Amino acid sequence: MRTTARRTTGAVGAAVAVLAVAACSGDAPGQAATTTVTATVTASPTASPTTSPAASPTTVAPEPTAGLEGFTAPGTELTAEPADGRLTVVAVRTGEHDGYDRVVYELAGEGLPGWRVGYVDQAVDDPSDEVVAVDGDAILRVWLTGTSYPFETGHEEFAQDVRPDDGDVEHVTRPLTFEGRSQSFVGVDDGPRPFRVFLLQDPVRVVVDVQDEG
User: Closest by alpha carbon to 118, among 144, 96, 139, 146?
Assistant: First the structure.
């Protein structure tokens, strides 16, 4: 089951709350509620990634799978503010886990990123306003904020779409950067599904988990 509409994360350590304080507010009718969340930074030991259809340029620890926050219902947008972020997305990985599927955006540069993540009816490219094709029944839009162009950070931007072989995440479009933020879309099968977003460090990663059906 697919619709069209385009585009292109372990462990041990103390969790440090950064960025914003959790709060939820209702928006105007027809718009998603916005939730500003507390981002948790966790140091990672050295290890090999568990799943990596699109391999990272460096060896990183597997992202945590236990002791995480609960999922947020569809119709909510999760947000967090960047902290002096000047980063570029250098890798995108996906993995299938018990109860959820995971998308990891790895970034390199200075500071910490923020995000705005929520479902949209249609994938629209910014700033061209062109509709882009995304495989899946629901589209989760991922804005990573505090990002910069490769020539500003010295790091090459990840430049391909990811289509996992298994799981309910069908398609992750390559991140495209414009004026301090990078846009990517996640195509979800039989969605929309509850989701969560959190931050990891060493290396810096924004993790998006999509809950399995049932």
Answer: 139
Q: How far is CA 158 from the centre of its chain?
A: 14
Averaged pLDDT, 8-26:
35
Cis amide leading into 127 (omega within 30): yes
pTM of the model: 0.74
Q: CB neighbours of 129 closer than 8 A, spacing ≥ 6?
A: none
First to last CA, the chain: 17
Is residue 3 within 8 Å of 136, Cβ to Cβ?
yes
- Tokens 């949209």 label which residue? 120
Adjacency order of strands within the sheet including 100-112: 83-97, 100-112, 204-211, 195-200
Evaluate if residue 84 carries a pLDDT over 60.
Answer: yes
